[in-house]
Amino acid sequence: MKKKLSLSLFWKFSIAMSLIVVLFVSINFYLLKKSANNIFESEFTHHGLITAKMIAGSSAELILEDNLAVLNNFVLAQTHRDTNFAYLFILDKNNNVLVHTFEKGVPKNLIRANLLPPEKAENSVKILDAVTSEKIRDIAIPILNGSLGTVRIGLYEKNFSLLNSNRNRIFFELVLLFLFIGICAAIFFAFNISAPIKFIIDTSEKISFNTSGNPKGQDLQLKRVVRTKNRFKIEDEIDVLIFKHNAMVARLKKTYIELQATQDSFVQSEKMASLGKLSAGVAHEINNPISGMKSAIRRVSNDPENVGQNIKYLQMISEAINKIENVVGSLLKFSRKQELVFTEVNLDVLVDNVLSLTSFQLEKSNIMVHKNIPASTPYINASVNQIEQLILNLILNCIDAIDEKKELNPSLKGEINITVVNEERVLILKIADNGIGMSPENIPLLFDPFFTLKKIRQGTGLGLAVCYRIAEQHKAKITASANEEEGMTFSVVFNTEHHRIVNHEE
Q1: What backbone phi and psi angles, to 5 degrees, belong to 452?
Q2: Long-range CB contacts (< 8 A, 24+ apart) of 452-457?
Q3: Angle at which helices 68-81 and 9-64 pack, to 10 degrees?
Q4: Does residue 428 share a domain with residue 319?
Q5: Beta strands in 258-342 (DSSP E)
Q6: Which CATH number covers residue 424?
Q7: Does residue 381 form part of some domain?
Q8: Is 203 inside any structural domain?
Q9: Which of 183, 220, 318, 337 is deepest in the core (most CB within 10 A)?
Q10: How would you classify the pairing of strands 136-143 and 124-128?
């Protein structure tokens, strides 16, 4: 596949508008130059004709008087007055030279080069290049309709070419100036069109709804772009687009904050729901020590004088109180809403804490837990409370899946395998069960909020969604897959690029 050429909107506008300007100026330059050349040539010829007619009119009386000396002086004076003259001579009606400006006489081939037809009062203009050393514009004007002769004027073509070249140079410089102005204007307008759009793209890519962001700075930049684009306070579609974009970002931020608050409440709600599931186990963990304490107190009351026995029972009461205190303390610590504070976390310890909380459910459902977490497993930088919540939700999900399968197969021996794999650049926590499992088409929906297929202890559909969010907050990845034989495996992958994974010795 050929790689596509990427070209920004600014350069597209600039190149397109510049090409249009160049094409427009070039066409106009060609047409105007051609037209100007024709006009200038016509004016140059017209000037020669007017001069020749004036000389013809002034020469008529002198020819009639046969005053050739004065006529000769007059002719010489005309050539000295106008530097465009290459020569000037007057012929009589028989084409004999009366006066001229040549030093050695008028060349015969020059006389024959532009003779007027006899008895015809017509002007004649010819370009001569073979009869003289230079290209000459030869003009023939009859005197008194040709009855007295002809005035012949030769004008230097080089003077016309020089004047025409100077005019073309000035015109070309003006064209270049207009071309430069046009290209600058094209780039300016391209910038003013593309800059707001580029601003929208950049802010969309860099948009952040964190409270630590700088939306105020973005607004200032937005106003600066609009002021640059619109000096005359005239609003157009670009202004509307960029202000609508800013308003949309503000709405998205507000919605994001509300969504974050809702998700936070979901996490806390799911945490309390998890505690509800653990309530029977909590009652069991508290009732058993309380029953032992009652029995010990009764025995002490019945035989207060038996010091040895009473010391033994008091020790039992103290141990029971400590156990209750630990259970209640763990529950309070788990249920308390905590900020997302990252510390060095030992996954082995967190797994043990969760197994302690779920010991009653595991025992009641007759589920064996196999834990394989190497002692050399490094710590991860994470939130203790959040990772405990994630592990608890996964284990409770495994318990529900095994209980549901036991409805179909009462003889099933439930198993949960918890392993930690330390691979290159990743640390993977795997929790697998041999429960009811799930069809492949439903696995992609597992982490969607409110999605549940549970039939036992109807689930909220938030447990795995909360797990997904916790993993996302830790820049980790959580996946689910069906086992080859039965059940499901959940994997939480902590990437070393996003976590400072340390050894125990650190």
Answers
A1: -155, 145
A2: 454/400, 454/404, 455/404, 455/407, 456/400, 456/403, 456/404, 456/407, 457/277, 457/400
A3: 170
A4: no
A5: none
A6: 3.30.565.10
A7: yes
A8: no
A9: 183
A10: antiparallel
The residue assigned the tokens 């024709």 is 38
pLDDT tens for 247-269 read 887 788 888 777 777 666 666 56
Do residues 149 and 291 both lie within one domain? no
Q: Are residues 489 and 358 in the same domain?
A: yes
Confidence band of 217 (pLDDT split at 50, 70, 90): very low
Inside any domain, residue 4? no
One domain for residues 354 and 486? yes
Report whether pLDDT(164) > 60: yes
Can you give the three-state secondary structure of 170-197, one letter per residue?
HHHHHHHHHHHHHHHHHHHHHHHHHHHH
Sorting pLDDT into bands at 50, 70 and 90, what band is 89? Answer: very high
Q: Read off the DSSP letter of residue 445.
A: G
* Whether residue 139 is found in the same domain as residue 230: no
User: What would the DSSP string read from start to end of 12-41?
Assistant: HHHHHHHHHHHHHHHHHHHHHHHHHHHHHH
Is residue 38 domain-shared with residue 81, that is, in the same domain?
yes
Give the position of tokens 């969504």: 259
Q: Are strands 488-495 and 343-345 parallel, antiparallel or unpaired?
A: unpaired
User: Is 190 domain-assigned?
Assistant: no
**What residues pair up with 150 in beta bridges, in sequence order?**
91, 142
Q: What is the pLDDT of residue 214?
A: 45
Determine the 3-state secondary structure of 351 from DSSP: helix
Structural domain containing residue 487 = 337-506
CB neighbour list of residue 169: distance below 8 Å, 6 or more residues apart: none
Q: What is the mean pLDDT of residues 301-325?
A: 75
Residues 418 and 504 in one domain: yes
d(CA 156, CA 162): 10
Q: Check whether 460 has a pLDDT greater than 60.
A: no
Cα–Cα distance for residue pair 480/273, rounded to 1 Å: 22
β-pairing, 85-91 with 149-156? antiparallel
Q: Is the pTM of this model over 0.90?
A: no
